[in-house]
Amino acid sequence: MTSTTRPATPGSEPDATDPPRRGEATSAPRGALRRPSAMTRNLDVSGLVDAEGGLLDRAVFTDDQLYRQELRRVFAPSWLFLAHTDQFHKPGDFFTTYMGEDPVIVTMDKNRKLRVYLNSCRHRGARVCRADMGATRNFTCTYHGWAYDLEGKLVSVPNQEGYPADFSPGQWGLVEVPHVDSYRGLVFGTWNPEPVSLRESLGDMAWYMDAMLDHDDEGTVVVGGVHKWVLAGNWKLAAEQFATDWYHVNMSHASALMVMSPSGKKPKDEIVHRTGRQYVDPNGHGAGFPVHPKNRFDARTVHDWADYPAMRERLGEARVEGPLTNGHATVFPNFSYLPVNGSVRIWHPKGPDKMEVWAWTIVDKSMPEEVREAQRLYNLRTFGPSGIFEQDDGENWSEVQSIAHGFITNGVALNYQMGMGSEREDGRHPGQTSELYSDAAGRSFYARWRDLMNTPAWHEADQK
């Protein structure tokens, strides 16, 4: 599914006599408006990320100007996760979320096409939909009553006779995200009017994602709704950990591992000292996973139900022994998942020092109800808002962030050198992989961030 409406660009003013242009229905003229260049001044971040040497400047987590630049150059051009297709079954179904800090509405139009709109009225800017999810026939702003249909068109303007004769509702529809696409039930969108395709952006990462998303022909569904919570910490701390960091497990989650072990016993040595691989993607994605022929789903009910021979036949031995179950992954910039418990989540940025976590539990559609429920409960107990692993992670990120603004502290480089030079083609997993205990995917994550931060985005081409 792909939408092709382009958002308004600075200085664009269509002539009323010209034929309709791509996206004109949802793009209004800016007229004489010109934004001063000082408001969008960009910093060269080359000196903040030494991916080759494995060093990182803490300013990437704390500087407000860098954060604003991220919204322009990292989030606006990238493919961002929005929702799961199972959240939309009939025209009018909608889900409200964010792309960076931009609020958007994901909805199914009358032709059953998924479309995404900026959740902001074109009159005074209030949200036109304040519900988290639901079904509707139109989106009406509760400030002055401007109303929009499921195709984003402005269909009702109270007191329209009070506007100038040349006022054209067709030029004041909702701003639409120009490209929306899905991969195995996961819906993504980008503001970039001419992006690489979603599939090309995923690259070899799709092979690792399929280990979670493609167990059989029926695909996946959402159970239990969407859980949301706020954490102190920069969004990149969470995204990089899910891309690269198995290293923290034995220390940070020691108490959780004890709780999950048989009463009175410490975790088995083969649990504590796992071996595996870490996928390192040039587009900033990353995935780590233990490799063992006896890898299994942790929830007993899910394990008993899983048809491992059928999945070996479908996915191959390498995926079943690796990324099918235990592991962690991030799709750059801010979408992460955990296959063993069906957790997918987005790290919404809320300033340099705060993120909002939105998490779904997804399961195989073919799972019986009792198996779905077992997976949902296991996810809640481990990586839900009060999960025994999740709370450890949130504590770590808030600890890192809480001291990072200190003058001396902020100037001390961080070490990302574990696994330097270990990246290679291992002959079993696609792309470059490193050791399980490695910072390789983290270095790649920040290299991608650096490159985007130093590359003008499409919307800068029209700035004078």
TrEMBL record:
The keyword Chloroplast does not apply. InterPro entries: ARHD_Rieske_2Fe_2S, RHO_NdoB-like_C, Rieske_2Fe-2S, Rieske_2Fe-2S_sf, Ring_hydroxy_dOase_asu_C_dom, Rng_hydr_dOase-A. Residues 1-39 are annotated as: Disordered. GO terms for molecular function: dioxygenase activity. The keyword Nucleus does not apply. It holds the Pfam family Rieske. SUPFAM superfamilies: Bet v1-like, ISP domain. Residues 79-177 form the Rieske domain. It comes from the Bacteria. Keywords: 2Fe-2S, Aromatic hydrocarbons catabolism, Dioxygenase, Iron, Iron-sulfur, Metal-binding, NAD, Oxidoreductase. Transmembrane segments: none annotated. Belongs to the bacterial ring-hydroxylating dioxygenase alpha subunit family. This is Aromatic ring-hydroxylating dioxygenase subunit alpha.
